[in-house]
Amino acid sequence: MTIVRRGKSGKFTLYRRIPQRFAPLGLGKFYKKSLKTEDRDLAQKKADEIWRLKVGEWDARLAGESDLADDYHRRVVVIADHLGHPYMTAEEVSHEPLSAVLRRVHVIDSSSEVQADALLGGSSAPPLALSGLADEYELVMRPDNIQKSDDQKRNWRNGIDRTIEAFRDLVGNRDVMELTAADAFSYKTRLTDRLQAGEISAYTVNREMYTLNAALKRTIKNRFGKDVDLFSGLLVKDKKGKRRNRQVSFPPDWISGNLLDRSKYGRTNKEAIDVFLCMVNTPARPSELLALRGATIHLEHNVPHISIEPDGRETKTVSAERLIPLVGLSLEIFQNYPNGFPRYQGKANTWSAVMNKQLRANDLLPTPQHKATSLRHSLSDRLLNAGCTETIKDQLFGHVEDGTPYGEGIWLGTAQEWLQKAAL
């Protein structure tokens, strides 16, 4: 029978046996749905339409065409959260105490089928394999990543893909809801083996586990309404007490005797060299330099400077938003690029690959540990040796400050004086 009613004048309900072919979806034996009407003809029309849509949805899920089912389920999970109850499947709801079930029922608007699905488990998300985790996580993180530039989004996604792929190679292409704490510990063991072999640092071990845990935690919460934290308590201790090992820097005499001589760069293109040499006297990251445009380069100001701000990209931290005076060689270079660096604008990775390759090819690196960004670290050394305090240096470099910041920070003129003292 398609529709049934309680009593002679009660409202009709759709009540049908679910075809056996849908057993893999775990829907149970029967489908039941209130039609919210006492009119038999209207109830039959509503029942026929609801059943047609449900069978279509189930067939699509069996065929792997689950986009619509996914979208609806995501909506259901969000609605359940907004109504003050975590999403539960129909089976989980059935095992709740009667008082808890009634609290869910009382919240439901009697005219809203989607609220009923949200609080009584009327929608189930198709399984999610590790091979689909990166795509799903990218959707979850879309609001958080909206301020990132295209280059930043690409770097973010590449990091997620790399980490998930490494985990999948270890545990197989598993359903994310079947993963266990033992799988997480196995992944930590593999990373720890690489740490002991000297291939990676403790910081990298923790970063990989944190990245994977965040992807699993936020995606599973969004898709299935469940709280998971597989990597809880698994982070390793970094005995050095530092996020990274100390970075090497170019000695001042190496800069003067080698890097400032443009004839030593071989066939390296002029713009790549100019970006590199900007870091001689400018405490800006390459990605910050290559995000600059005419509106953030202020050469006519009484203190010529650049403005690091979220102009089409996401800054690394709030502290990274700052004004940096231009002095010496850096000022001379920017006078030739008043609108920024067109060839590499927004392409920090491309510039880095080109510059590091050319520095190696032309024997411009004192040791294998040196790289293009080591030039920026040299400015840090020169500032400290000129008597600059750590607080002022951190503000110039856009590093996160310890404690509570007070006031507006270093004045532009004062920053100019310190950079002039350290300039080459």
UniProtKB/TrEMBL annotation:
Report keywords, A-Z: DNA recombination
Gene3D superfamilies with a match to the protein in the record: Intergrase catalytic core (1.10.443.10)
InterPro entries the UniProt entry points to:
DNA_brk_join_enz, Integrase-like_cat_sf
Q: Report the protein name in the record.
A: Phage integrase family protein
**Which organism is the protein's source?**
Shimia sagamensis
